[in-house]
Design goal:
Blueprint lengths: L1 E4 L5 E5 L1 H10 L7 E4 L6 E2 L7 H7 L11 H9 L7 H14 L1 H19 L4 H25 L11 H4 L2 H21 L1 H10 L3 H8 L3 H14 L1 H11 L1 H24 L8 H41 L8
Antiparallel strand pairs: 1-2, 1-3, 3-4
Amino acid sequence: MYKIIGADRKEYGPVTSDQINTWILEGRANGQTLVQAAGSAEWRALSSFPEFAAVLAAKSPAPPLVGSADPAVIANAALARGVEVNIGECLSRGWRLLLNNLALFLGASLLLLLIRLGLGLVPVIGGLAYLVIFGALYGGFYLIFLKRVRGEPSGIGDLFAGFSRDFVQFMLAGIVSSVLVFVGGLLCILPGIYLAVAWKFGLALIADRRLEFWTAMESSRRVITRYWFQIFGLLVVAYLPLVLFMGYSLFHMVSVMVPILLNSGGQFNFNFGQIMKMISGFVTLSLAQQLVALFTVPFATASLMHAYEDLFGTRPTPAA
């Protein structure tokens, strides 16, 4: 016997597996429907129950791209849930999720880091290539975490899911958001910061709901605007170790360069030993920063995807 959470967020059951199979075939339940087995206190995604795999496979072809969806409708549906984004709760659940999936999350983060660093070694072309593909990469990265949030199986291969479906939407979302955030930052830093936070769920919405890129970005902006300070606070706290280390690195670089420039009297006569020492120090700092990022990014992403699931997902909202 099982209990399920319906699309109306109400609990139904106990019901038999045959009844759930019927609901799947009728389109009233899907792989993301939350189910609780008799004798268990845990709510899990229906797709994680092997006894329903055959019916789900028969009923669930790849969802179509929803290019004409109205962002106002999507945003209003999310906002109507009246969810409170609790920063501490998101961080706590993100930490537990990270510990339970440490190898998967660190592996995906390491692969993402290596791709970025590898392309960074190729002048000009590498940077342009990364601009084109980073939307698809991060869409797949978010999908890994989102699946685990929902109790669904996931693997490193999901990192590349955005290359086999909706690549153009991921690419456009990545390029358009990057350009507009950059322009907003040039005009005045506050619009750039606002947009960077407001569009944070854009790629996740494309990965999760297969939305057209502008629909996803606008839906994200409309919802996050209501919770902007909570999401901003969540990002600041989750990424704090990386932010602090970046600040330290910048301070260290300035403290090394300024005395040399002041003592040079305008004559930039660096000897080879000085140059190599500076380069060695900066490379060491850069590598250490990547190591900090390797552990910070999966924790921050796990926390952020819990906030996404609370606002846009299918599971019951967490208790206050």
